[in-house]
């Protein structure tokens, strides 16, 4: 009898409020990552909307999945939709579904992702790319937790938890009128910001270990590589413009291309060893290999040029502008837009 009640209490503790968070598949030891996981643990216990920000490849989707897996909705679906990859006209029917004959080509009715995500979590990726029109419709659906299919009259109610993510600076998008403030506040109840890998370099080697371990699990033939001291230092010093996705790709490439167990600096991809001449800008092959895209790569190059000029001139903006052969006001605007500060991480050379 006593035993039974103790068991019940123990069971209750595990389900409710105990600080257990399964971080399986998430590697790293940095303070920055610990903070992210701490917030994720707390937020998993609630149904609050979460907005995850961070550059591409930093692990936004991974954290979203961890929140879902650790939430009471874990047995429900987690539905992912990339709002940036789908043309605006199609995105509406993708999200909300459509009735037969709603538009040319709608030969049959279709269930939208909101309906599919009922009792689960919907992950709205690249939310910053959503058109103004659709932002209004999304806001309404989120406020009321109900909506109509495109071309439909029946109102559909769903029970979903919303996690969204963006690599864009939504503050800037709002200032420019490209992102609705009311929608922003609706999505951003709990903000989670994931730092780029270059601002948490302690995570580089634990991630290398983690990805090598994954390769071992996938193929019994794989013998984990041993990196020389210099190779390790090179990996830690590299800026990883494509973040963890780039590191993951690199480990796979090395596993295939380097036959020796010992990995030296010259075995690392040129991109990584050439950083010195790259001036901290993403080199072209790394752009292609990590899904960064034109705009983001150009942004990063601008950022690198400006930080260098500022470092060179001791943050005297007029002189930095001269060095860049650029209008001083333009430079000041860019500094503001990029949130650069004298304490911002300075390039090492
Ligand atoms: N801390 C981490 N530990 C292990 N793998 C990670 C970590 N962060 C990211 N990854 C992996 O890196 C890749 C990119 O992560 P993803 O969540 O898709 O990034 P984002 O959505 O920010 O572009 C994925 O394969 C993901 O599993
Ligand atoms: Mg992503």
Descriptive notes:
It is a single chain. With 349 residues, this protein is of the alpha/beta class. It has two domains: 194 residues, P-loop containing nucleotide triphosphate hydrolases (Rossmann fold); 139 residues, Helicase, Ruva Protein, domain 3 (Orthogonal Bundle), CATH 1.10.8. Helix content is 48%, strand content 11%. The protein is built from 17 helices and eleven strands. Helix 2 runs parallel beside helix 3 and helix 9 crosses helix 11. The N terminus is likely disordered. Adenosine-5'-diphosphate binds next to helix 3, helix 9 and helix 11.
Quick gist of this model?
By secondary structure, the chain is an alpha/beta fold. Helices cover 48% and strands 11% of the residues. The protein folds into 2 domains: 2-195, P-loop containing nucleotide triphosphate hydrolases (Rossmann fold, 3-Layer(aba) Sandwich), CATH 3.40.50; 199-337, Orthogonal Bundle (Helicase, Ruva Protein, domain 3), CATH 1.10.8.60.
């Amino acid at each position: 009898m006593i035993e039974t009640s103790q068991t019940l209490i123990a069971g209750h503790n595990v389900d409710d409020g105990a600080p257990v968070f399964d971080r399986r598949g998430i590697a790293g030891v940095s303070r920055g990552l610990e903070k992210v996981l701490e917030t994720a643990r707390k937020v998993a216990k609630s149904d609050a909307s979460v907005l995850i920000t961070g550059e591409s490849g930093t692990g936004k989707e991974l954290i979203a999945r961890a929140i879902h897996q650790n939430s009471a909705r874990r047995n429900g679906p987690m539905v992912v939709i990339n709002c940036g990859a789908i043309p605006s006209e199609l995105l509406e029917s993708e999200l909300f579904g459509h009735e037969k004959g709603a538009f040319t080509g709608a030969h049959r009715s279709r269930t939208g992702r909101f309906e599919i995500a009922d009792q689960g979590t919907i992950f709205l990726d690249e939310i910053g790319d959503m058109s103004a029109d659709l932002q209004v419709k999304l806001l309404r659906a989120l406020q009321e937790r109900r909506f109509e299919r495109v071309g439909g009259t029946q109102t559909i109610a769903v029970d979903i938890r919303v996690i969204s993510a963006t690599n864009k600076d939504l503050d800037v998008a709002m200032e420019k009128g490209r992102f609705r403030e009311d929608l922003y506040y609706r999505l951003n109840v709990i903000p989670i910001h994931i730092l780029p890998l270059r601002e948490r370099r302690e995570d580089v080697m634990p991630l290398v270990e983690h990805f090598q371990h994954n390769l071992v699990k996938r193929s019994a033939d794989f013998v984990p590589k041993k990196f020389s001291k210099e190779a390790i230092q090179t990996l830690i010093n590299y800026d990883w413009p494509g973040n963890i996705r780039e590191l993951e790709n690199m480990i796979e490439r090395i596993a295939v291309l380097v036959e020796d167990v010992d990995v030296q600096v010259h075995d690392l991809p040129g991109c990584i060893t050439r950083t010195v001449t790259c001036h901290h800008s993403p080199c072209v092959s790394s752009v292609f290999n990590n899904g960064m895209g034109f705009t983001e790569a150009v942004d990063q190059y601008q950022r690198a040029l400006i930080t260098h000029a500022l470092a060179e001139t001791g943050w005297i903006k007029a002189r930095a502008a001269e060095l860049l052969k650029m209008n001083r006001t333009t430079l000041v605007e860019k500094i503001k837009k990029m949130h650069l500060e004298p304490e911002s991480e300075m390039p090492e050379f």
